[in-house]
Amino acid sequence: MKHQSLFTNNESKALDSLAIKELGFKEETLMGMAALSVFHANEDLWKTAESIWILCGTGGNGGDGYALAHILHQEGFQVRCFSTAPNKNEAGKFYESLVSKTLGSTSNLEDFYKDWEEAEEDSVLLVDALLGTGFQGELSEELKELIDTVNDSDVFFYRLSLDTASGWNPYFLGEKNREAHPFIFADSIEELGTRKWENIGFIYEKDSIIPRYYESIGFPVRSHLNKDNFSNRYYLEADPESAIQAIKRKNKDHKYSAGSAIFYGGETGMEGAILLSEEAFSRLGGGINKIFSPSSQISSLVLKDDLSKMAKTSSISEISHDPFFTKTKTMVVGPGLTKYPEDLEGWTLPEDKKLILDAGAIPTKGNLLPKGNHILLTPHVGELNRMTGKIHNSVQAAYDTLIEFCPQNNVYVLLKSFVSLLVCPDGSSYVWESPNPKLATMGTGDLLSGILARYLSLDFDIPDAVHLALSFLDHSKQLEEPYPSAHQILKSLVELV
Protein backbone atom coordinates (compact mmCIF):
# COMPACT_ATOMS: atom_id res chain seq x y z
CA MET A 1 0.00 0.00 0.00
CA LYS A 2 1.49 3.33 -1.07
CA HIS A 3 1.29 5.74 1.84
CA GLN A 4 3.25 8.50 3.54
CA SER A 5 3.44 9.42 7.20
CA LEU A 6 1.40 12.37 8.47
CA PHE A 7 2.62 14.26 11.50
CA THR A 8 0.67 16.47 13.86
CA ASN A 9 2.01 19.91 14.74
CA ASN A 10 3.29 18.57 18.06
CA GLU A 11 4.96 15.58 16.40
CA SER A 12 6.65 17.89 13.89
CA LYS A 13 7.94 20.02 16.76
CA ALA A 14 9.28 16.90 18.46
CA LEU A 15 11.14 15.90 15.29
CA ASP A 16 12.53 19.41 14.98
CA SER A 17 13.79 19.25 18.55
CA LEU A 18 15.18 15.76 17.99
CA ALA A 19 17.09 16.85 14.88
CA ILE A 20 18.64 19.82 16.71
CA LYS A 21 19.26 18.45 20.21
CA GLU A 22 20.08 14.79 19.55
CA LEU A 23 21.34 14.67 15.97
CA GLY A 24 23.27 17.93 16.17
CA PHE A 25 21.64 19.88 13.33
CA LYS A 26 21.95 23.64 13.54
CA GLU A 27 18.55 25.31 13.38
CA GLU A 28 19.96 27.75 10.84
CA THR A 29 20.92 24.76 8.69
CA LEU A 30 17.41 23.29 8.75
CA MET A 31 15.92 26.70 8.00
CA GLY A 32 18.29 27.19 5.09
CA MET A 33 17.55 23.69 3.75
CA ALA A 34 13.83 24.42 3.92
CA ALA A 35 14.24 27.66 2.00
CA LEU A 36 16.46 26.03 -0.60
CA SER A 37 13.94 23.22 -1.12
CA VAL A 38 11.12 25.72 -1.64
CA PHE A 39 13.26 27.75 -4.04
CA HIS A 40 14.11 24.78 -6.26
CA ALA A 41 10.58 23.36 -6.14
CA ASN A 42 9.13 26.61 -7.51
CA GLU A 43 11.79 27.83 -9.96
CA ASP A 44 9.26 28.09 -12.79
CA LEU A 45 6.81 29.96 -10.56
CA TRP A 46 9.33 32.64 -9.54
CA LYS A 47 9.96 33.42 -13.21
CA THR A 48 6.32 34.42 -13.70
CA ALA A 49 6.49 37.27 -11.16
CA GLU A 50 7.40 40.91 -11.72
CA SER A 51 7.97 41.12 -7.99
CA ILE A 52 7.97 38.68 -5.07
CA TRP A 53 6.77 39.89 -1.67
CA ILE A 54 7.36 37.80 1.44
CA LEU A 55 5.33 38.44 4.59
CA CYS A 56 7.43 37.35 7.57
CA GLY A 57 6.18 36.69 11.08
CA THR A 58 8.14 36.63 14.31
CA GLY A 59 8.76 32.87 14.63
CA GLY A 60 10.40 30.03 12.74
CA ASN A 61 8.00 30.38 9.81
CA GLY A 62 9.12 33.99 9.41
CA GLY A 63 12.72 32.77 9.55
CA ASP A 64 11.99 30.43 6.63
CA GLY A 65 10.65 33.45 4.75
CA TYR A 66 13.80 35.49 5.37
CA ALA A 67 15.99 32.56 4.29
CA LEU A 68 13.95 32.21 1.09
CA ALA A 69 14.23 35.95 0.44
CA HIS A 70 18.01 35.74 0.71
CA ILE A 71 18.19 32.93 -1.87
CA LEU A 72 15.77 34.64 -4.26
CA HIS A 73 17.75 37.87 -4.08
CA GLN A 74 21.04 36.09 -4.72
CA GLU A 75 19.52 34.34 -7.73
CA GLY A 76 18.52 37.64 -9.29
CA PHE A 77 14.81 37.88 -8.47
CA GLN A 78 13.07 41.09 -7.44
CA VAL A 79 12.10 40.33 -3.84
CA ARG A 80 10.94 42.32 -0.84
CA CYS A 81 10.45 41.32 2.82
CA PHE A 82 7.72 42.79 5.01
CA SER A 83 7.83 41.91 8.69
CA THR A 84 5.11 42.17 11.30
CA ALA A 85 7.77 42.71 14.02
CA PRO A 86 11.41 41.72 14.70
CA ASN A 87 11.94 37.95 14.63
CA LYS A 88 12.10 36.21 18.03
CA ASN A 89 13.56 32.91 16.85
CA GLU A 90 17.38 32.69 17.09
CA ALA A 91 17.77 31.14 13.64
CA GLY A 92 15.16 33.56 12.32
CA LYS A 93 17.16 36.50 13.70
CA PHE A 94 20.19 35.26 11.76
CA TYR A 95 18.34 35.24 8.43
CA GLU A 96 16.54 38.51 9.19
CA SER A 97 19.92 40.12 9.78
CA LEU A 98 21.29 38.50 6.62
CA VAL A 99 18.41 39.87 4.54
CA SER A 100 18.92 43.34 6.00
CA LYS A 101 22.52 43.23 4.83
CA THR A 102 21.95 41.68 1.38
CA LEU A 103 18.71 43.46 0.40
CA GLY A 104 19.64 46.65 2.20
CA SER A 105 16.69 46.56 4.60
CA THR A 106 13.42 44.89 5.54
CA SER A 107 10.10 46.71 5.48
CA ASN A 108 7.24 46.88 7.97
CA LEU A 109 3.48 46.63 7.53
CA GLU A 110 3.11 50.36 7.04
CA ASP A 111 5.41 50.03 4.03
CA PHE A 112 3.40 47.03 2.85
CA TYR A 113 0.10 48.92 2.73
CA LYS A 114 1.70 51.90 1.05
CA ASP A 115 3.32 49.78 -1.67
CA TRP A 116 0.22 47.64 -2.04
CA GLU A 117 -1.95 50.67 -2.84
CA GLU A 118 0.46 51.66 -5.62
CA ALA A 119 1.02 48.16 -7.06
CA GLU A 120 -0.56 47.09 -10.34
CA GLU A 121 -3.08 44.30 -10.69
CA ASP A 122 -1.61 40.78 -10.91
CA SER A 123 1.93 42.05 -10.51
CA VAL A 124 3.00 40.43 -7.24
CA LEU A 125 3.63 36.85 -6.16
CA LEU A 126 3.05 36.71 -2.42
CA VAL A 127 4.81 34.28 -0.07
CA ASP A 128 3.01 33.79 3.25
CA ALA A 129 5.55 33.18 6.04
CA LEU A 130 3.50 34.79 8.80
CA LEU A 131 2.37 31.94 11.06
CA GLY A 132 3.61 28.37 11.19
CA THR A 133 1.81 25.19 12.15
CA GLY A 134 2.50 25.82 15.83
CA PHE A 135 0.29 28.91 16.05
CA GLN A 136 -2.65 28.17 18.34
CA GLY A 137 -3.90 31.49 19.70
CA GLU A 138 -6.35 34.09 18.50
CA LEU A 139 -5.35 36.28 15.59
CA SER A 140 -4.65 39.89 16.45
CA GLU A 141 -6.76 42.53 14.73
CA GLU A 142 -3.62 43.60 12.87
CA LEU A 143 -3.17 40.11 11.42
CA LYS A 144 -6.87 39.75 10.59
CA GLU A 145 -6.73 42.98 8.62
CA LEU A 146 -3.54 41.88 6.85
CA ILE A 147 -4.98 38.47 5.93
CA ASP A 148 -8.21 40.01 4.65
CA THR A 149 -6.21 42.47 2.55
CA VAL A 150 -4.15 39.68 1.02
CA ASN A 151 -7.23 37.57 0.27
CA ASP A 152 -9.30 40.35 -1.27
CA SER A 153 -6.61 42.09 -3.29
CA ASP A 154 -6.21 41.72 -7.05
CA VAL A 155 -2.55 42.78 -6.76
CA PHE A 156 -1.48 39.23 -5.85
CA PHE A 157 -1.78 36.79 -8.73
CA TYR A 158 -0.53 33.86 -6.60
CA ARG A 159 -0.30 33.15 -2.88
CA LEU A 160 2.16 30.53 -1.69
CA SER A 161 2.17 29.57 2.00
CA LEU A 162 5.11 28.01 3.82
CA ASP A 163 4.17 24.91 5.85
CA THR A 164 0.54 25.97 6.36
CA ALA A 165 -1.76 28.82 5.39
CA SER A 166 -1.49 31.48 8.10
CA GLY A 167 -4.56 31.44 10.33
CA TRP A 168 -5.80 28.08 9.02
CA ASN A 169 -7.41 25.84 11.62
CA PRO A 170 -9.37 22.76 10.48
CA TYR A 171 -11.68 23.01 13.47
CA PHE A 172 -12.89 26.47 12.39
CA LEU A 173 -14.68 25.64 9.14
CA GLY A 174 -17.73 27.32 7.64
CA GLU A 175 -18.51 30.86 6.59
CA LYS A 176 -19.38 32.12 10.07
CA ASN A 177 -16.16 30.83 11.60
CA ARG A 178 -14.19 32.07 8.61
CA GLU A 179 -15.15 35.63 9.48
CA ALA A 180 -13.98 35.16 13.06
CA HIS A 181 -10.92 33.09 12.14
CA PRO A 182 -9.68 34.25 8.72
CA PHE A 183 -6.82 32.50 6.97
CA ILE A 184 -4.71 33.07 3.89
CA PHE A 185 -6.39 31.73 0.75
CA ALA A 186 -3.25 29.99 -0.46
CA ASP A 187 -2.98 28.78 -4.05
CA SER A 188 -0.49 26.18 -2.83
CA ILE A 189 1.29 25.16 0.36
CA GLU A 190 4.88 23.99 0.71
CA GLU A 191 5.05 21.55 3.62
CA LEU A 192 8.55 21.56 5.07
CA GLY A 193 10.20 18.54 6.66
CA THR A 194 6.99 16.64 7.43
CA ARG A 195 3.59 16.18 5.88
CA LYS A 196 1.16 17.98 8.18
CA TRP A 197 -1.95 16.31 9.59
CA GLU A 198 -3.63 19.63 10.33
CA ASN A 199 -3.37 20.64 6.65
CA ILE A 200 -5.50 17.72 5.49
CA GLY A 201 -8.65 19.04 3.86
CA PHE A 202 -7.26 22.56 3.33
CA ILE A 203 -9.97 24.20 1.29
CA TYR A 204 -11.25 27.68 0.61
CA GLU A 205 -13.55 26.93 -2.29
CA LYS A 206 -16.35 24.38 -2.07
CA ASP A 207 -14.96 20.86 -2.44
CA SER A 208 -11.67 22.16 -3.85
CA ILE A 209 -8.52 20.80 -2.23
CA ILE A 210 -5.68 23.28 -2.56
CA PRO A 211 -2.39 21.68 -3.69
CA ARG A 212 0.23 20.94 -1.06
CA TYR A 213 3.77 19.93 -1.89
CA TYR A 214 6.14 18.19 0.48
CA GLU A 215 9.78 19.28 0.64
CA SER A 216 12.28 17.10 2.48
CA ILE A 217 14.82 19.00 4.59
CA GLY A 218 16.60 16.14 6.35
CA PHE A 219 14.18 15.50 9.22
CA PRO A 220 14.48 11.98 10.74
CA VAL A 221 10.99 11.04 9.57
CA ARG A 222 11.89 7.44 8.80
CA SER A 223 14.23 6.38 11.56
CA HIS A 224 12.04 7.75 14.36
CA LEU A 225 8.58 6.42 13.53
CA ASN A 226 7.78 4.88 16.90
CA LYS A 227 4.91 4.89 19.35
CA ASP A 228 6.56 7.56 21.48
CA ASN A 229 6.58 10.26 18.82
CA PHE A 230 4.27 9.17 16.00
CA SER A 231 0.52 8.64 16.03
CA ASN A 232 0.20 6.27 13.04
CA ARG A 233 -1.55 8.59 10.62
CA TYR A 234 -0.86 8.03 6.94
CA TYR A 235 -1.59 9.75 3.64
CA LEU A 236 -2.70 7.32 0.93
CA GLU A 237 -1.28 7.75 -2.56
CA ALA A 238 -3.26 6.63 -5.58
CA ASP A 239 -2.14 3.32 -7.07
CA PRO A 240 -4.47 2.88 -10.06
CA GLU A 241 -2.44 0.27 -11.93
CA SER A 242 -2.17 -2.04 -8.92
CA ALA A 243 -5.91 -1.63 -8.37
CA ILE A 244 -6.63 -2.83 -11.91
CA GLN A 245 -4.21 -5.74 -11.82
CA ALA A 246 -5.43 -6.97 -8.45
CA ILE A 247 -9.07 -7.11 -9.49
CA LYS A 248 -8.55 -8.91 -12.80
CA ARG A 249 -9.46 -12.58 -12.97
CA LYS A 250 -6.55 -15.01 -13.15
CA ASN A 251 -6.57 -17.86 -15.69
CA LYS A 252 -6.44 -20.49 -12.94
CA ASP A 253 -9.37 -19.03 -10.98
CA HIS A 254 -12.53 -21.02 -10.31
CA LYS A 255 -15.79 -19.54 -9.03
CA TYR A 256 -14.75 -19.51 -5.38
CA SER A 257 -11.11 -18.49 -5.77
CA ALA A 258 -12.30 -15.60 -7.97
CA GLY A 259 -14.19 -14.32 -4.96
CA SER A 260 -17.44 -15.15 -3.19
CA ALA A 261 -19.82 -12.83 -1.37
CA ILE A 262 -23.22 -12.47 0.27
CA PHE A 263 -25.31 -9.32 -0.15
CA TYR A 264 -28.17 -8.37 2.17
CA GLY A 265 -30.43 -5.35 1.66
CA GLY A 266 -33.06 -3.92 -0.63
CA GLU A 267 -36.31 -3.40 1.20
CA THR A 268 -39.44 -3.34 -0.96
CA GLY A 269 -39.09 -0.52 -3.47
CA MET A 270 -35.36 -0.15 -2.77
CA GLU A 271 -34.08 -3.40 -4.26
CA GLY A 272 -32.00 -1.51 -6.80
CA ALA A 273 -29.40 -0.55 -4.19
CA ILE A 274 -28.44 -4.11 -3.26
CA LEU A 275 -28.65 -5.17 -6.90
CA LEU A 276 -26.15 -2.47 -7.82
CA SER A 277 -23.70 -3.58 -5.13
CA GLU A 278 -23.98 -7.17 -6.34
CA GLU A 279 -23.63 -6.11 -9.98
CA ALA A 280 -20.39 -4.25 -9.20
CA PHE A 281 -19.01 -7.35 -7.52
CA SER A 282 -20.02 -9.68 -10.36
CA ARG A 283 -19.08 -7.54 -13.35
CA LEU A 284 -15.67 -6.77 -11.85
CA GLY A 285 -14.77 -10.43 -11.75
CA GLY A 286 -16.43 -11.86 -8.66
CA GLY A 287 -16.87 -15.61 -8.97
CA ILE A 288 -20.07 -16.41 -7.08
CA ASN A 289 -22.50 -14.61 -4.80
CA LYS A 290 -26.00 -14.71 -3.40
CA ILE A 291 -28.45 -11.91 -2.63
CA PHE A 292 -30.64 -12.06 0.48
CA SER A 293 -33.32 -9.43 0.98
CA PRO A 294 -36.41 -8.67 3.08
CA SER A 295 -38.21 -7.93 -0.21
CA SER A 296 -40.58 -10.61 -1.49
CA GLN A 297 -39.80 -9.43 -5.03
CA ILE A 298 -36.05 -9.98 -4.91
CA SER A 299 -35.96 -13.39 -6.63
CA SER A 300 -38.13 -12.31 -9.55
CA LEU A 301 -36.09 -9.13 -10.01
CA VAL A 302 -32.77 -10.99 -9.97
CA LEU A 303 -33.80 -13.92 -12.12
CA LYS A 304 -35.50 -11.63 -14.61
CA ASP A 305 -32.09 -10.35 -15.69
CA ASP A 306 -29.91 -13.42 -15.10
CA LEU A 307 -31.12 -16.97 -14.45
CA SER A 308 -27.64 -18.00 -13.23
CA LYS A 309 -27.83 -15.80 -10.14
CA MET A 310 -29.06 -16.72 -6.67
CA ALA A 311 -31.50 -14.71 -4.57
CA LYS A 312 -33.71 -15.36 -1.57
CA THR A 313 -36.24 -13.50 0.55
CA SER A 314 -34.84 -13.75 4.04
CA SER A 315 -34.00 -12.09 7.33
CA ILE A 316 -30.38 -11.67 8.39
CA SER A 317 -30.74 -14.28 11.11
CA GLU A 318 -31.62 -16.90 8.48
CA ILE A 319 -28.49 -16.28 6.40
CA SER A 320 -26.15 -18.14 8.75
CA HIS A 321 -28.27 -21.30 8.25
CA ASP A 322 -27.96 -21.15 4.47
CA PRO A 323 -25.40 -23.63 3.02
CA PHE A 324 -23.83 -20.83 0.97
CA PHE A 325 -22.90 -18.94 4.15
CA THR A 326 -20.20 -21.44 5.08
CA LYS A 327 -18.60 -21.17 1.64
CA THR A 328 -18.32 -17.40 1.31
CA LYS A 329 -15.73 -14.98 2.67
CA THR A 330 -17.39 -11.58 2.43
CA MET A 331 -20.73 -10.03 3.38
CA VAL A 332 -22.24 -6.68 2.43
CA VAL A 333 -25.20 -5.53 4.53
CA GLY A 334 -27.10 -2.29 4.21
CA PRO A 335 -27.73 -0.99 0.66
CA GLY A 336 -31.45 -0.46 0.27
CA LEU A 337 -32.25 -0.74 3.99
CA THR A 338 -33.88 2.11 5.91
CA LYS A 339 -32.94 1.07 9.43
CA TYR A 340 -30.32 -0.89 11.32
CA PRO A 341 -31.26 -4.61 11.38
CA GLU A 342 -31.99 -5.81 14.91
CA ASP A 343 -30.49 -9.21 14.06
CA LEU A 344 -27.06 -7.57 13.78
CA GLU A 345 -27.01 -6.43 17.40
CA GLY A 346 -24.48 -8.53 19.26
CA TRP A 347 -24.18 -11.02 16.37
CA THR A 348 -20.76 -12.71 16.17
CA LEU A 349 -19.07 -12.70 12.76
CA PRO A 350 -17.13 -15.93 12.08
CA GLU A 351 -13.36 -15.39 12.06
CA ASP A 352 -12.98 -16.41 8.42
CA LYS A 353 -15.41 -13.76 7.15
CA LYS A 354 -15.35 -10.02 6.51
CA LEU A 355 -18.40 -7.80 6.90
CA ILE A 356 -19.19 -4.44 5.28
CA LEU A 357 -21.94 -2.35 6.89
CA ASP A 358 -23.23 0.41 4.64
CA ALA A 359 -26.22 2.74 4.24
CA GLY A 360 -29.15 1.45 6.34
CA ALA A 361 -26.86 -0.88 8.27
CA ILE A 362 -24.91 2.04 9.72
CA PRO A 363 -26.10 2.01 13.34
CA THR A 364 -27.62 4.86 15.30
CA LYS A 365 -25.92 5.77 18.58
CA GLY A 366 -27.07 3.19 21.12
CA ASN A 367 -27.33 0.27 18.69
CA LEU A 368 -25.10 -2.67 19.53
CA LEU A 369 -22.59 -3.50 16.81
CA PRO A 370 -21.85 -7.05 15.71
CA LYS A 371 -18.71 -8.66 17.10
CA GLY A 372 -15.75 -9.74 15.01
CA ASN A 373 -12.26 -8.85 13.84
CA HIS A 374 -13.05 -7.91 10.25
CA ILE A 375 -15.96 -5.47 10.29
CA LEU A 376 -15.91 -2.33 8.11
CA LEU A 377 -18.47 0.48 8.42
CA THR A 378 -18.72 2.95 5.53
CA PRO A 379 -20.74 6.00 6.66
CA HIS A 380 -20.96 9.37 5.00
CA VAL A 381 -20.74 12.42 7.28
CA GLY A 382 -24.43 12.47 8.19
CA GLU A 383 -24.38 8.77 9.05
CA LEU A 384 -21.22 9.25 11.11
CA ASN A 385 -22.94 12.02 13.07
CA ARG A 386 -25.94 9.76 13.67
CA MET A 387 -23.75 6.82 14.64
CA THR A 388 -21.69 8.75 17.20
CA GLY A 389 -24.12 11.43 18.33
CA LYS A 390 -21.59 14.14 17.46
CA ILE A 391 -21.29 16.76 14.72
CA HIS A 392 -18.13 16.67 12.58
CA ASN A 393 -17.09 19.58 10.38
CA SER A 394 -13.60 18.38 9.47
CA VAL A 395 -11.66 15.19 8.94
CA GLN A 396 -9.63 16.03 12.04
CA ALA A 397 -12.80 16.23 14.15
CA ALA A 398 -13.98 12.89 12.73
CA TYR A 399 -10.60 11.37 13.57
CA ASP A 400 -10.81 12.54 17.18
CA THR A 401 -14.12 10.69 17.53
CA LEU A 402 -13.17 7.55 15.60
CA ILE A 403 -9.81 7.03 17.25
CA GLU A 404 -11.82 6.15 20.37
CA PHE A 405 -14.83 4.55 18.65
CA CYS A 406 -12.93 2.03 16.51
CA PRO A 407 -10.77 0.40 19.20
CA GLN A 408 -13.70 0.38 21.65
CA ASN A 409 -15.93 -1.45 19.16
CA ASN A 410 -13.17 -3.39 17.34
CA VAL A 411 -14.29 -2.09 13.94
CA TYR A 412 -12.84 -0.27 10.95
CA VAL A 413 -14.64 2.89 9.82
CA LEU A 414 -14.27 4.43 6.36
CA LEU A 415 -15.72 7.94 6.35
CA LYS A 416 -16.82 8.78 2.80
CA SER A 417 -16.40 12.44 1.95
CA PHE A 418 -14.37 14.69 -0.36
CA VAL A 419 -11.58 13.65 2.01
CA SER A 420 -12.02 10.01 3.05
CA LEU A 421 -10.72 8.73 6.37
CA LEU A 422 -10.12 5.12 7.39
CA VAL A 423 -9.58 4.48 11.10
CA CYS A 424 -8.56 1.00 12.26
CA PRO A 425 -9.06 -0.81 15.58
CA ASP A 426 -5.30 -0.78 16.23
CA GLY A 427 -5.25 3.05 16.18
CA SER A 428 -3.73 3.49 12.75
CA SER A 429 -5.51 5.73 10.25
CA TYR A 430 -5.32 6.62 6.57
CA VAL A 431 -6.62 9.60 4.62
CA TRP A 432 -7.54 9.69 0.95
CA GLU A 433 -7.53 13.25 -0.38
CA SER A 434 -8.80 12.98 -3.93
CA PRO A 435 -12.15 14.76 -4.34
CA ASN A 436 -14.22 13.21 -7.10
CA PRO A 437 -17.44 15.13 -7.88
CA LYS A 438 -18.48 12.40 -10.32
CA LEU A 439 -19.18 10.20 -7.29
CA ALA A 440 -21.68 12.70 -5.87
CA THR A 441 -24.67 10.89 -7.30
CA MET A 442 -27.21 8.33 -6.16
CA GLY A 443 -25.86 4.79 -6.09
CA THR A 444 -22.11 5.41 -5.88
CA GLY A 445 -22.06 4.33 -2.23
CA ASP A 446 -23.67 1.03 -3.25
CA LEU A 447 -21.08 0.78 -6.03
CA LEU A 448 -18.24 1.26 -3.55
CA SER A 449 -19.63 -1.48 -1.32
CA GLY A 450 -19.55 -3.93 -4.21
CA ILE A 451 -16.01 -2.94 -5.17
CA LEU A 452 -14.83 -3.28 -1.58
CA ALA A 453 -16.42 -6.72 -1.39
CA ARG A 454 -14.58 -7.70 -4.57
CA TYR A 455 -11.16 -6.87 -3.10
CA LEU A 456 -11.98 -8.34 0.32
CA SER A 457 -13.09 -11.58 -1.33
CA LEU A 458 -9.56 -11.84 -2.79
CA ASP A 459 -8.13 -12.02 0.75
CA PHE A 460 -6.85 -8.45 0.95
CA ASP A 461 -7.00 -7.06 4.46
CA ILE A 462 -9.35 -4.15 5.06
CA PRO A 463 -6.82 -1.26 4.77
CA ASP A 464 -5.43 -2.66 1.51
CA ALA A 465 -8.91 -3.30 0.13
CA VAL A 466 -9.96 0.27 0.92
CA HIS A 467 -6.84 1.68 -0.73
CA LEU A 468 -7.33 -0.42 -3.87
CA ALA A 469 -11.07 0.34 -4.10
CA LEU A 470 -10.54 4.10 -3.79
CA SER A 471 -7.69 3.99 -6.31
CA PHE A 472 -9.87 1.99 -8.70
CA LEU A 473 -12.83 4.37 -8.35
CA ASP A 474 -10.52 7.28 -9.09
CA HIS A 475 -10.51 6.15 -12.73
CA SER A 476 -14.05 7.52 -13.00
CA LYS A 477 -12.60 11.04 -13.07
CA GLN A 478 -11.61 10.35 -16.67
CA LEU A 479 -15.22 9.99 -17.82
CA GLU A 480 -16.27 12.65 -20.32
CA GLU A 481 -19.80 12.62 -18.94
CA PRO A 482 -19.93 15.51 -16.40
CA TYR A 483 -22.59 13.88 -14.20
CA PRO A 484 -22.46 10.14 -14.85
CA SER A 485 -24.90 7.74 -13.22
CA ALA A 486 -23.64 4.95 -11.00
CA HIS A 487 -24.31 2.49 -13.85
CA GLN A 488 -22.27 4.61 -16.28
CA ILE A 489 -19.41 4.69 -13.76
CA LEU A 490 -19.58 0.92 -13.33
CA LYS A 491 -19.59 0.39 -17.10
CA SER A 492 -16.42 2.47 -17.45
CA LEU A 493 -14.71 0.53 -14.65
CA VAL A 494 -15.65 -2.81 -16.16
CA GLU A 495 -13.90 -1.77 -19.37
CA LEU A 496 -10.64 -1.42 -17.41
CA VAL A 497 -10.60 -5.09 -16.40
From TrEMBL:
One of its GO terms (biological process) is metabolite repair. GO terms for molecular function: ADP-dependent NAD(P)H-hydrate dehydratase activity; ATP binding; metal ion binding; NAD(P)HX epimerase activity. It comes from Leptospira kanakyensis. The keyword Manganese does not apply. The lineage of its organism: Bacteria, Pseudomonadati, Spirochaetota, Spirochaetia, Leptospirales. This is Bifunctional NAD(P)H-hydrate repair enzyme. Keywords: ATP-binding, Isomerase, Lyase, Metal-binding, Multifunctional enzyme, NAD, NADP, Nucleotide-binding, Potassium. It catalyses: (6S)-NADPHX + ADP = AMP + phosphate + NADPH + H(+); (6R)-NADPHX = (6S)-NADPHX; (6S)-NADHX + ADP = AMP + phosphate + NADH + H(+); (6R)-NADHX = (6S)-NADHX. Its cofactor is K(+). Residues 12-216 form the YjeF N-terminal domain. In the C-terminal section; belongs to the NnrD/CARKD family. Bifunctional enzyme that catalyzes the epimerization of the S- and R-forms of NAD(P)HX and the dehydration of the S-form of NAD(P)HX at the expense of ADP, which is converted to AMP. This allows the repair of both epimers of NAD(P)HX, a damaged form of NAD(P)H that is a result of enzymatic or heat-dependent hydration. Residues 238-497 form the YjeF C-terminal domain. Pfam families: Carb_kinase, YjeF_N. Binds 1 potassium ion per subunit. Its EC number is 4.2.1.136, 5.1.99.6.
